[in-house]
C-alpha cells in the first residue's frame, strides 16, 4: 500500500462535463469472484475503503493519456479516469488491461467493436489498417470524405487515428494549409476545416499532443478560421497574437511551466471560441479535450505551489506600499485566477493549497487591497475572499479575532467587508449581495467548531457583537431616528433590506447575543419605523424580522415588545393597508393568528387591551375575534383559580386520539373475543355490548351537536355556572384491578354503580364495585395505558366544564384517587 507507483487519484465525469475527484488511493488488479473476471481495485489510502471496483471488460475502450492517465467509460454516460503519481505504475496497470483484452501494450487505446455490424467487422478485421490518400492539394476533398465516413464507426475511428499518428499526417496537412492560404484556395481551406474538425472528434490524446504542440497549435487554429458556413473567415490568430497579451506579473523561471500556461490558454480558447458548439451526438466525442484542459490546470497549480520563490515574491509585492496601482491590479487578477484554478484540485491538495496561501499571508494582503479605492481591484479581492470563506470560514474567523487584539475596530477585515457592503455604488447592489452572503457564512453557527478547550461559536459571536455589529446596524439606526425613514430611495431601501435579512438570520441562529443587542439598543422599535416605507418589500422585511422574534415565544422579547408598545406600527400599517388583499395584509394576519394558535397569553392580553377597538370591526377573518375569546378565557381562569387548577388536573389525564383512529379502535375493542382478553379485565356479555353501542352513540351525537352550536356562537363568552348545579354526564369511568381502564356509557337514571344490569355490578369479578382495598392504588388512572378515550375532546372551555361535571358524579372513593 505504500508503493507510490500504484498511487492514483480517481476521477468521474459529471453532467457538466467536469471531472470530479473521488479520492486518492492505491490501485491493484485481480480476479473478483462477484464480477466473474479480472478487475481494477482502488482502495483509499486514508482508511482502506474501496473507492473503485471495475471489471476489465473485453470490449471496453481504455485510453492511456499523457503517460500517467487511463480513461474509460463504464456506461453510456459514466466516464472514469485514473491519474497515476508515477509513469511506471500507469504502465503496469495498462499492461494488465491489455493482457485481459489481448492487446499490444504499445497502443494508447484498446479497440471497441460494440457498434459494428458483422459485415463491417469482417471487412475491417480482414484489412490490417486504414490506408490514407497521399497528402496532396488535389486530394483534400477525398481526405475530408474519408474522415467524415470514419466518425460513425468506433473501429474505423481507431484505425484512422492510428494512421494519422503513425504517418505524421497532421503536420503534412498543416503544410498544405500554408499553401492554400498563399494561393487563396478557399475550397481547399474549407476542406481543411472539415478535416481538422473531424480529427478533434476522434477524441484521441496522442493526436491532441501533436496538434497542441508549440509549432502546430496556431496553424490548427488557422484551419478552424475557414468555416464553410461563414461568408468571411474568423480572425482567431490575430486575437491570440495581438490582442491577448500574456502578462508575467511575477517572472516565471520554469520554461516548462510557462509553456504549459500558454498551451492551456490556447486550448481553452479553441474549446470555448473556435470549435462550433457540439451537437448532442458529438458532445461525448470531445471528452478527451475536456480532460486535457482539466489535467493541465491541475499541473499548473501544482507547479506554482511548489515554487516558493514565486509565491513569496507575489505576496511581498501585493503588500508593498511602493507597488504602483497598475501592478497591484495585475497581481490581484493573477491571484484570483490562481484561486479559480485551485477548484480543479482534489480536496486533500486543495487543503494544502489554501494552507500555503494562508501561511504566505493572504488575509493581511486582502485587507490592504480592500482598503484601496480602485473598484476593479476591490472586486477581484472580494472574489478571492469568497474562495477563502467558502473553503474554510474558521480560518478567516481565527484571523479576525487575532487581529482585533492589535488593531482598532475601524480597520478590522470584517468591518471593511461590511463597509464595502454599505457603500456599494452599484444601483442593483450586486457586490453588496455577495458580501452579505459571505458575512452570513461567517456568523453561521452551523459551520463553527467546538473542541474540548474552546467553543468557536462563543468566542467569535462575542467578538462580532462587540466589534462589528454596530458597523452593520449603523445605516439602519441612522435612517430611523424619526417616525418615518429619513431616506426612502430605492437603493437605500435595498441596502436596509439586506441588513434586515442578516439580522433576521441572527435572531434565528444566535441566542443571547442578539437578544441582548436588540433589547439594549432598542433595535426592534427602529426596525418597525421601516413599516412606513413606501417600498413594500422593505416594510415586509421589517415585519418578517418581528415575526421571527415572536416565533421564538421568548418572554424576554415579549416583555420588551409590550413595554415599548411595538404592535402599534404593525396595527397602523394594517389599518393603512385597508381592505386590500395583498402580501402585507396576509403577513400581518398570519402573525396575529400565530399568537392565537400558540396561545401566547402575554401578547394576547396586550393586543386586546390596547388595540381591540381598532381591530374589532375586522370580520373577514376570525383571527381577532378568536384572540378576544382567548383573552376572555384567560380572564375567566384568573377569576376562578380553583376552577383553572381543576381543569389542568383533568386535562393532564386525557388521552386524545384522531377521530378515525378512535372509530377503528372502538370497533376492534367491541369485536375482541373473550379468549383474547387479558387476565383481570372485565368481560362484557354480548347483550351488554349491544346495549353499550347504543349508549355510546347517543353521547357522541350529543357532543357533535354541542360542538356545532359552539362554532355558531363563537362571539359569546361561556357563562359561569356552579359545579353542583350541573347535570350528571353520560360517561362514567369503569376501573378494574388490572392495568387497563375501560370507558362505558351509562344512563344516570338506570345503570347506577352496583345495579344488577350494569357491567360494573358487585357480582362481576374485577368490576369497580368489587375492587378490594389492597388494590386501590393499582386502580388509579394512569396517563399512559390507563384511560381509553372513545371521544376526542376539544381544547376549549366547554369540554373543560364537562370534565368538572364528570368529576362531580364520580363516587367519593374515585374522587379521592383523582385528587391524589
From TrEMBL:
<dbReference type="InterPro" id="IPR051137">
    <property type="entry name" value="PP4R3-like"/>
</dbReference>
<feature type="compositionally biased region" description="Low complexity">
    <location>
        <begin position="730"/>
        <end position="747"/>
    </location>
</feature>
<feature type="compositionally biased region" description="Acidic residues">
    <location>
        <begin position="793"/>
        <end position="807"/>
    </location>
</feature>
<dbReference type="Pfam" id="PF22972">
    <property type="entry name" value="EVH1_PP4R3"/>
</dbReference>
<feature type="region of interest" description="Disordered">
    <location>
        <begin position="671"/>
        <end position="699"/>
    </location>
</feature>
<dbReference type="InterPro" id="IPR055236">
    <property type="entry name" value="EVH1_PP4R3"/>
</dbReference>
<dbReference type="GO" id="GO:0016607">
    <property type="term" value="C:nuclear speck"/>
</dbReference>
<feature type="compositionally biased region" description="Polar residues">
    <location>
        <begin position="772"/>
        <end position="781"/>
    </location>
</feature>
<dbReference type="InterPro" id="IPR011993">
    <property type="entry name" value="PH-like_dom_sf"/>
</dbReference>
<dbReference type="GO" id="GO:0030289">
    <property type="term" value="C:protein phosphatase 4 complex"/>
</dbReference>
<dbReference type="Pfam" id="PF04802">
    <property type="entry name" value="PP4R3"/>
</dbReference>
<comment type="similarity">
    <text>Belongs to the SMEK family.</text>
</comment>
<dbReference type="GO" id="GO:0072542">
    <property type="term" value="F:protein phosphatase activator activity"/>
</dbReference>
<feature type="compositionally biased region" description="Acidic residues">
    <location>
        <begin position="671"/>
        <end position="681"/>
    </location>
</feature>
<feature type="region of interest" description="Disordered">
    <location>
        <begin position="720"/>
        <end position="820"/>
    </location>
</feature>
<protein>
    <recommendedName>
        <fullName>SMEK homolog 1</fullName>
    </recommendedName>
</protein>
<dbReference type="GO" id="GO:0006974">
    <property type="term" value="P:DNA damage response"/>
</dbReference>
<feature type="domain" description="Serine/threonine-protein phosphatase 4 regulatory subunit 3-like central">
    <location>
        <begin position="142"/>
        <end position="633"/>
    </location>
</feature>
<dbReference type="InterPro" id="IPR016024">
    <property type="entry name" value="ARM-type_fold"/>
</dbReference>
<dbReference type="GO" id="GO:0005829">
    <property type="term" value="C:cytosol"/>
</dbReference>
<dbReference type="InterPro" id="IPR011989">
    <property type="entry name" value="ARM-like"/>
</dbReference>
<feature type="domain" description="PP4R3 EVH1-like">
    <location>
        <begin position="5"/>
        <end position="101"/>
    </location>
</feature>
<dbReference type="InterPro" id="IPR006887">
    <property type="entry name" value="P4R3-like_central_dom"/>
</dbReference>
